[in-house]
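Prompt: Have a read of the protein record below and flag anything odd:
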Amino acid sequence: MKRMIMLALPVLILALGCDNMMKKDHQSRKMEAEAKKMAVANIKPAGAASTQPSWGTPMGIVTFTQMGDKVMVHADLTGLPPGKHGIHIHEKGDMSAANLMSTGGHYNPDKHIHGGPTTSPVHAGDFGNITADASGKATLDLTVDDISIGGKNDILGKAVIIHAKADDLKSQPAGAAGARIAGGVIQAK
């Protein structure tokens, strides 16, 4: 009997070890899949931009990457007029109006006041400003925790909007950032 137990013990240990490894591998793959949830908004000039040459021809991409309960936002834009421009998520992905007013107001599912990315609580879509250099290039890197890709405060199907002026980060309801000069619908990648 002791001999059978001694022979069976290594097999049991090996089986338990394999089961543990499989559980860890499953957890690792699940975390990796969550971390790779991505969405993008391809930014294009507003239709009204053709009548407003001072708006430039803004283009680029805004990438959203879900990392646990936070979302990393990276914007890489060109063709903007030099200076600061408000950048927000708006509530609708309807880009049909030449002035982009069809995208509605700032995305605000929790009914907070307007502000900037360093104040709290604010609209889920309040990203503050993006600054274009003299050649019209601008980048933004931001990590936020009040939106998600496919979960609570889902951003899929909403629009990223770039404004003509800087967001003052305090005027209600939207920061006095002026006309909507460019935008794109957020889609899963």
Remarks:
- Strands lie at 38-45, 59-67, 70-78, 83-90, 126-132, 138-144, 159-163, 180-188.
- The CA atoms of residues 19 and 158 lie 42 Å apart.
- The chain has a mean pLDDT of 85.
- The chain has two domains: 1-35, 36-188.
